Amino acid sequence: MGVYNSGRTAKVNCTDDHLCIDARQWQRDGVLVAGTSYISTWSRSGKELGNIGVKAEQGQVTLSYSWQQNDSEAKRLDYPVGLETTSCHFGGVRYWFTCPTENCGKRVAKLYLSDKYFSCRHCCQLAYHSQREGQDDRARRRAEKIRAKLNWQPGLLNEQCGKPKGMHWKTYVRLMTKYRDDVNQTMLGMNAKMELLTKRIGALCDRL
User: Which residue range forms the structural domain that includes residue 124?
Assistant: First the structure.
């Protein structure tokens, strides 16, 4: 299995920057059936970041991978992670991981690799990327979603192409009202950031 090295990257506190395993995805892939063995891999820009071995058993999965502390010898880790199921409204069940961290046991869909074990987001002290955003960042994301609904080219600085064919005028007016509000909020936030940056650069120049 891939070797994970705790000294490779600086510690960050956002879920997007940590490898994770997702019980929902594994359920869709059919790998949570007892007796199934599976290799889970992660890649970015076509480059493999790592992989772990997964063996599904009754009520749990066993994770197998190697961990290396800086330049020390890599160690093999094999440990179980509990599985729970809940009933779905329209039949069937949904799988959840049980956080293996001592004194936790929280039922979660995702576990994240922090330090050398997979744990829930709360035990890893991770925040979602959206929680780190300011109001202007969230406004920009909302505006981009509206552009997608209107079949416009992504990017707030690109032209507005009008109402898409087949869309009701009432819907179009509602979306445009929200879009203008979000764009205005985005621009105000950008201006505030530029002013702050200008002040910091000015203060730095004054010290030189």
Answer: 3-129
